[in-house]
């Protein structure tokens, strides 16, 4: 067995695995640690086989998976150090999910607290999540989802041959429902901007605004981000969204786009309003701040540069590696 094992609830395309697991596995291996990851088995038979073959492992990180009390006890016996990592409000329903939208799902918070009480350390993606479990967990560390700022970089001034500023959104299909109110707010900018929506699903763009809805792929993700001048992150304000870790903002900012985001949750800890982005209190604010950025290219360039610098300094992968190794009991590893 490896010295360090990450167990994930989903496959490698899920953002939490792509950015909170795989980079740390690669970083550990680069530092000489035998590290691996695997998806937690879905079926009872798969889990039985998994535990039958699991040997004593110095460090096990359980990523976002709320296991049963029996499985937690089995992991506890096999792990020298057991860590639980999460970056979402796992107890809350998605805002678009009917009557429970944005609120707590009965019994889910209790499941989360039970897991957090049974591990040696909890790693939370933001302060809201950390405070939610602090009374149950032995130790809690806040570690925002990091970004490899050597890969996510601005494309430079020659990325496009003229044209209006590109205002865009990138995200999963379940969050497309946030966008229609913004389309109305951006309608007065018809002819002055171009819309870009990148997702694993599709949405009809308004007829009056030029733009495109493109399919997300790992290969086109960074070029699509680099094509943006302004990046949007609209959210409702509820338990689910306060648990979000603003990773979309970090991607925008690292690639040279100025973020305009709802004034909700961890967004407030990422953006300094008016300096490296804008925090919108309502839909009208989105339209007003985007219009300001469109009218003033010099301000847009200054804010984009500050946004990029902040991500490199505070949310880069190297800084996250330095913070994570002591949490995992791997002090002294290089970056």
What characteristics describe this protein?
single chain; 335 residues; alpha/beta; Rossmann fold; 2 domains; six-stranded parallel beta sheet; 14 helices; 37% helix
Low-confidence stretches: none
Helix content: 25-40%
CATH topology-level name of the largest domain: Rossmann fold
Counting DSSP E segments of at least 2 residues, the number of strands comes to 12
Q: Over the alpha carbons, how many angstroms does the gyration radius reach?
A: 21 Å
The side-by-side strand order for the widest beta sheet comes to 2-1-3-4-5-6
Q: Class by helix and strand content? A: alpha/beta
The total number of structural domains is 2
The CATH class name of the largest domain reads Alpha Beta
Report the sheet-strand fraction.
15-25%
Query: Helical element count?
Result: 14
Mean pLDDT: 93
Order of helices and strands: EHHEHEHEHEHEEHEEHEHHEHEHHH
Cα shape: globular
* Secondary-structure arrangement, i.e. CATH architecture of the largest domain: 3-Layer(aba) Sandwich
- Give a short account of the largest sheet: 6 strands, parallel
Report, as a whole number of angstroms, the end-to-end distance.
23 Å
The CATH fourth-level homologous superfamily of the largest domain: Glycogen Phosphorylase B
């Amino acid at each position: 067995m490896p010295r360090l094992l990450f167990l994930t609830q989903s496959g490698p395309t899920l953002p939490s695995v792509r950015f909170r697991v795989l980079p740390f596995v690669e970083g550990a291996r680069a530092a000489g640690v035998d590290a691996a990851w695997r998806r937690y088995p879905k079926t009872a038979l798969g889990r039985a086989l998994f535990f039958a073959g699991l040997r004593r492992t110095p460090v096990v990180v359980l990523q976002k998976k709320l296991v049963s009390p029996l499985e937690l006890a089995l992991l506890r016996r096999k792990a020298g150090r057991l860590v639980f990592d999460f970056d979402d409000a796992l107890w809350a329903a998605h805002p678009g999910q009917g009557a429970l939208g944005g609120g707590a799902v009965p019994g889910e918070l209790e499941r989360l607290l039970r897991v957090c009480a049974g591990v040696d350390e909890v790693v939370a993606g933001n302060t809201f999540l950390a405070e939610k479990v602090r009374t149950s967990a032995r130790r809690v560390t806040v570690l925002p989802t990091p970004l490899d700022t050597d890969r996510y970089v601005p494309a430079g001034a020659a990325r496009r041959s003229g044209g209006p500023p590109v205002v865009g959104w990138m995200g999963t299909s379940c969050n497309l429902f946030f966008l229609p109110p913004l389309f109305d707010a951006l309608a007065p900018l018809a002819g002055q901007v171009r819309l870009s929506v990148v997702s694993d699903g599709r949405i009809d763009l308004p007829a009056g605004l030029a733009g495109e809805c493109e399919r997300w792929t790992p290969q086109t993700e960074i070029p699509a981000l680099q094509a943006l001048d302004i990046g949007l992150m609209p959210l409702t304000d509820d338990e689910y969204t306060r648990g979000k870790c603003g990773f979309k903002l970090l991607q925008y900012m690292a690639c040279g786009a100025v973020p305009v985001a709802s004034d909700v949750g961890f967004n407030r800890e990422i953006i300094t309003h008016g300096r490296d982005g804008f925090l919108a209190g309502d839909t009208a604010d989105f339209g007003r701040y985007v219009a300001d950025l469109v009218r003033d290219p010099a301000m847009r360039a200054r804010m984009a540069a500050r946004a990029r610098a902040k991500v490199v300094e505070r949310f880069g992968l190297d800084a996250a590696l330095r913070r994570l190794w002591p949490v995992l009991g791997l002090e002294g590893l290089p970056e």
